[in-house]
Amino acid sequence: MPDYKTYKYISEEKFFYNEYEYPFDNYVDYSTDPDIYENVLSFSGYLNLVLQVLSIFVSIFHCAVLFQKELRSTPIYILMKGICISDIFNISVEFYFAGVEREWISRIYSLSNLDCLRSDFQVINVTFEILKMIMTACRPISVTLAILMEVIRTLILIFSKAKFFSSVISARCIILLVAVTWFVYYSWNFAFITSLWYPDNLCDDPEVRERSVNFTEYVHVVPTTVADFMSTRELIEHWIRIIPSIFYPIITIEMISRLKKIHKGHKHITHSDSHENLPSLVLFMMITFTLSEGTDGIRTLILVNTHDWRTESLLIKKSLFSTEYIVQILRCFNIISHPFVCYFMSIHYRNTVKRMIGRRKRRMAVMFYLLEYENQIVVQVAPRLSIEHSNDRPRAVSISKL
């Protein structure tokens, strides 16, 4: 496997770009002084590292809030915890690879330079594959949970008696099912890993065999057919970015439509600012999500399907290469925005944060409040809230808990 670098020259004929193989243009001079595209790549790379560190710390704080007693039993917040933990693992491994690339962090895996293994097997590094599996699996886990969370919110708005989606058990089962599905998808190849004694499994080239016979060691390998399936999985990775970017806006538009109907049907009730701003916050979440996932997917789709462009499209190719870290920056912004959206969207989250920083004491009293969905009234239990009065009767409409 190639090193995790943007440009890793393997030979005079080809190079690798984020695991995708592209032909090397021998007639293009790659040794010239850095141009604007390389400067953009370099600057955005360092900015991305800063934002990755910030994303990790913000996500840790977000996770600490979600594990507080006031929030940890709410199904939607349980799903948020799954998203947050997945983001932490994904960004941490990405940062580790970037640190290894810049030689800031010691490498815990080694890349094999053995080039005379028999043709029906391919050498792999188990540690590298494990790290790569964690990084690649955690991102779609976060994306899938985010989409399911919006689906559940929308279904609750449409069917207010959807009790299944409001249970803690169902939320945890959803996280387990999603995590197992994606980890199996990205790790099934580990079942085919085996060890071979290298000197007994050399290739047929006499010259290469002669200089390789002295390498007396066991190597981890997978069958070539399995390696081909792994490569195919890499080549369709962009669809895992693009498809969610199509579904998420559709779900969000339906949710915003339902929220506006609810507000329109209860104009006589004075809503809090967070309720009035809820459609705008949901729209903001949709925009950041779509930019984070959709831009990356479309960019990779173009790169994979147009890698044989020549000099007539060199500027377009270089432009796409220079945006590698820009799309990662968009993802960092999306992750960093999560706790802020929760803070402004949910009074429960906001009160929990205020208590954690010492601005609000914990209130142990519990009361009943009413959630109104069109003509149906659902009674739920929540921490003490500020109750709005209408004709001297306490009434509260709260959809921020969703």
UniProtKB/TrEMBL annotation:
The chain crosses the membrane at residues 46-67, 79-98, 164-188. The keyword Transmembrane applies. SUPFAM superfamilies: Family A G protein-coupled receptor-like (SSF81321). One of its GO terms (molecular function) is G protein-coupled peptide receptor activity. Keywords: Membrane, Transmembrane, Transmembrane helix. It comes from Caenorhabditis brenneri (Nematode worm). It comes from the Eukaryota. It holds the Pfam family 7TM_GPCR_Srw. The keyword Transmembrane helix applies. This is G-protein coupled receptors family 1 profile domain-containing protein.
